[in-house]
Amino acid sequence: MTRGILEGVARTGAKLVYGDNLYMYGDTEGKPISENAPYGATGRKGKVRAQVATMLLEAHKKGDVPVVIGRGSDFYGPNVVNSTFGEHFFKAALSGKTADLLGDIGLPHTYTYIRDFAKALVELSDNDTANGQVWHVSNAETITTRQIVAMVEKELEMPIKVRTAGRSMVFLLGLVNPMMREIKEMMYEWEKPYIVDHSKYAQAFGAESTPHRVAIKETVDWYRQRFSPN
């Protein structure tokens, strides 16, 4: 599919701006993840991401298509439903039910607000000096997952019951649930600090990003509308 996309873009003479995640880096043992980190993924999802990124950048080097890659961490925000802080979490939180999260929620974890990610991709699209490179978009400060939960609680003005699943539980659930089988290979994200270094992007384009408290409010408002009976 990637090859077909490249061929299609090449025919139009357009620039390919590729929105990506961080799966290809694999387990960095809690060290901050920069664009220079090696592709160390051992799982299927990470290996596929590494292969796609390599193919895109090679196409750029050969002069086939101008390419730029923007990468974000775990996304949240309006229209982000399949994520840690996605539909499953907010539906439970808004209804007063137990919300499920992964691993150690007391560890620092970089989260990317989807609207910041979209703005960053536009910035990369508009600046040809960014071409042929990977960029980690600017994010709000890295805080813990527990702190994100606390911000949601403050916005909802009610406590949230949280249940966490460790590696063993994810493994057992994966025996019967295909989605949990996929999550199993990514559990390192929730067992160690997961911190993204976006200094390269910040130096080139600025470090402006939406504060988590503002992003959480916008996200809660969106989910309230989504689950509204009207």
UniProtKB/TrEMBL annotation:
Residues 2-134 form the NAD-dependent epimerase/dehydratase domain. Signal peptide: none annotated. InterPro entries: Epimerase_deHydtase, NAD(P)-bd_dom_sf. Coiled coil: none annotated. Belongs to the NAD(P)-dependent epimerase/dehydratase family. PANTHER family: DTDP-D-GLUCOSE 4,6-DEHYDRATASE-RELATED. This is NAD-dependent epimerase/dehydratase domain-containing protein.
